[in-house]
Structures are given as structure tokens and as C-alpha cells.
Design goal:
The chain is of the alpha/beta class. It has two domains: 180 residues, Alpha-Beta Complex (Quinone Oxidoreductase, Chain A, domain 1), CATH 3.90.180; 123 residues, Rossmann fold (3-Layer(aba) Sandwich). 25% of the residues lie in helices and 28% in strands. The strands form three sheets. Strands 3, 4, 5, 6, 7, 14 and 15 form a seven-stranded mixed sheet that branches. The chain binds NADP nicotinamide-adenine-dinucleotide phosphate. NADP nicotinamide-adenine-dinucleotide phosphate (NAP) binds next to helix 1, helix 4 and strand 9.
Length: 324
């Protein structure tokens, strides 16, 4: 009989309750891959979109073709993990059983489980001083922010606005922008303005008092993680050579994109993963953890992410001995 493990499984699209903990076969190793005993894994907006099939406007058909017509084709969600290497596939020489690693499994998912199999090349060692929880809370937002800030032309001295500066991507985008020597303004509601200041924002905007629709400052780069900006905001918010980067772009926005309005996907990329964890080690980058749930409460973790109010990352503690 095949060995089994506990995993969070979604057989159909729907509300958080479609995610149930079941015993499923432990995935099989393959050449170039490693098996990781997962310690901590975030429930991200990518996971909840795949669970509920809430793709951006105009993307419903394409989204379902990619993830499954009637339900997730890969029922164990979870693109990002941190844990301990438990077995090596053929040809893996640069990692050993017992190494602490973190990685981004992209569309293959499978991290909301006791074990995940991932390409060795998409994993990085977790520095000794960094906990699995910190690593798990860094990689989704950090690699996404790294990719899209680069696409937006981030450079020292630039004036940057992060819309949604307290979310999983936003907390990383704010800090990376500051670390690269740019000036950063963060946008969130008043309860999150102290957090954005603590993370290094030069200016903060409480959108409940000063809606961005009426904002008249201009920036070299605007990163929208919320999804309430579009190409029609570009002239009002951007300097002449500025770029507006839309993380949740619908089909029409993608069609309208170009040099000034940037869209795209960072799915499966792990841009800057090792550098991000090194910055956590040196305490120049701070992971932000909203809440930690045991695997048994995975539906509650999905509900928290669906609230669109989380600050930083929602984690699942798989080992239940997570140190945050
Ligand atoms: N294209 C890609 O490849 C890609 C990759 C990764 C992520 N994404 C997308 O990026 C988006 C952001 O993900 P995330 O995980 O960072 O989101 P998140 O963590 O769910 O964002 C939540 C935060 O957004 C803030 N917020 C909510 N409404 C706001 C508003 N109107 N103005 C400003 N801030 C607001 C909230 O602060 P308050 O509670 O203070 O309002 C909260 O802290 C998602 O849509 C995700 O799908 C795209």
C-alpha cells in the first residue's frame, strides 16, 4: 500500500469550506526533485483564487482551462513552502536530507500538506537564524514584489507608490523599494498606516480619508496590488516616463498594457528568493505574519485570506511546532 499523508484538499471550486483535510498518497519523487517535510506554508491570494475560481475579469475561461474545468486539477493547493528535505531524487547533489529549505512550487502547488515534492532548482536553503514561518511569510510576497518592481523599472531615487502596502505582496514591496534606495508611499486603511511606517514608508495614505481616485501626486512607479487602479489612472498618477504595474489585471487591461501600463504573471517564478531570505537573516527585511492556523483549521485560514483584510501572510503550521 502507498504511504499516505494529511493534506488540505479542494475537489471542487467554492467557498473556504470546500477545503478539507484528507489522507492522500505521498507524492512520488522524480529525477531532479526533492521531497520536503513541510513545516510552514502560506495560504495566498493565488491559492484562494484557485480554490474559488475568482479569476480577474475576462479570465474565467482561460483560468479554468489552466487550473481545471469543474474543480482544481491539482486538488492540494499551496505554491510556497518551508520545511526540511526528507528525500532526494536522482541527480540532486547540492542538497542533503535534513537541510532546511524553502521554495516556490508555482502551478504544481501541493504545499498545503505534510510532504511536497519540488524541483531542487526552485528551492533555497533557509539560513540558520531564520525560522520556517519567517521563510514561508517572505517568499510569496517577496518574489512577487521583486519580479513586478523590476518590471516597473525600480531604481534608486525613484518615487514609488504601493497601493495595498499592508498586504502579503505590499509589505515586501514597500521594504524592497526602500532597500533599493527609492522613496516609497504606502496606501492602506488607517489601522495599517503605523505598520507601513515601521516597514520604512516615507509617506502613508489612509485611503478611507484620502481616496486614491482624488490623489494628485505623480510617481515614477505605481504598484497596484489591490486591483482598483487601471490604465485610466496612469496619466493622473504617473510622471512622464512612469509605469503603472497592475497585479490583478483583467483581460481588457492586459490588452491595453504596454510600456506605461505593465501586467503579467509571476506564477512559478522565484525571483530573488535566496537574497530575500538573506535579508531576513540580517534583519533588513521583516516578514509580517497575520495569523497562524493549524492544518485542521485550513478552511478558517482561507476565510481570513478571503476577507481581503490580512496584513502580510496567513500561515498554516503543518508541523505544529513552528517558531515564528
Ligand atoms: N499577477 C501575478 O502574477 C500575481 C502574483 C501574486 C499576487 N498577485 C495578486 O496580487 C494581489 C495582492 O495580493 P496580496 O496577497 O498582497 O493581497 P492581500 O494580502 O490580500 O492584501 C490585503 C491588504 O490589502 C489592503 N487593502 C484592501 N483594500 C485596499 C484598498 N482599497 N486600498 C489600499 N489597500 C487596500 C488591506 O489593508 P486594509 O485592511 O488596511 O484595507 C490588506 O492589508 C492579489 O490580487 C493577487 O492575486 C498577482
Amino acid at each position: 500500500m502507498n504511504p499516505t499523508m494529511r493534506a488540505a484538499v479542494a475537489h471542487t471550486y467554492g467557498s473556504p469550506e470546500v477545503v478539507q483535510v484528507e489522507r492522500v498518497p505521498i507524492p512520488k519523487l522524480a529525477p531532479g526533485r526533492i521531497m520536503i517535510r513541510v513545516v510552514a506554508t502560506p495560504v495566498t491570494r493565488g491559492d484562494t483564487i484557485q480554490r474559488a475560481a475568482t479569476f480577474p475579469s475576462g479570465m474565467a475561461v482561460l483560468g479554468r482551462l489552466m487550473t481545471g474545468l469543474r474543480g482544481p486539477r491539482r486538488p492540494v493547493l499551496g505554491a510556497v513552502f518551508a520545511g526540511v528535505v526528507s528525500a532526494l531524487g536522482a541527480g540532486v547533489t547540492d542538497l542533503s536530507v535534513g537541510d532546511r529549505v524553502a521554495g516556490v512550487n508555482g502551478p504544481e502547488g501541493g504545499a498545503h500538506a505534510e510532504y511536497v515534492v519540488a524541483k531542487a532548482a526552485s528551492c533555497v536553503r533557509i539560513p540558520d537564524e531564520v525560522s520556517a514561518g519567517e521563510a514561508a511569510a517572505t517568499l510569496f510576497g517577496g518574489t512577487t514584489a521583486t519580479y513586478f518592481l523590476e518590471r516597473g523599472g525600480l531604481r534608486p531615487g525613484a518615487r514609488v507608490l504601493i497601493n495595498g502596502g499592508s498586504g502579503e505582496v505590499g509589505v515586501m514591496a514597500l521594504q524592497i523599494t526602500r532597500l533599493r534606495g527609492a522613496t516609497v508611499t504606502g496606501v492602506a486603511s488607517g489601522k495599517n498606516t503605523p505598520l507601513m511606517r515601521e516597514l520604512g514608508a516615507d509617506e502613508v495614505i489612509d485611503y478611507t480619508e484620502n481616496p486614491l481616485e482624488t490623489h494628485r501626486q505623480r510617481y515614477d512607479l505605481v504598484l497596484d496590488t489591490v486591483g482598483n487602479l487601471g490604465p485610466s489612472d496612469a496619466d493622473r498618477l504617473l510622471k512622464e516616463d512612469g509605469r503603472l504595474v497592475l497585479l490583478r489585471a483583467g483581460l481588457n487591461q492586459m490588452i491595453a498594457s504596454g510600456r506605461r501600463v505593465v501586467t503579467g504573471s509571476s506564477l512559478g517564478r522565484a525571483d530573488g528568493a535566496a537574497e530575500l531570505l538573506e535579508s531576513v537573516r540580517t534583519k533588513t527585511l521583516k516578514p509580517v505574519i497575520d495569523r497562524v492556523f493549524p492544518l485542521a483549521d485550513v478552511a478558517a485560514a482561507h476565510r481570513r485570506v478571503d476577507s481581503l483584510r490580512k496584513t502580510g501572510s496567513v500561515l498554516i503550521d503543518i508541523s505544529e511546532d513552528i517558531v515564528t
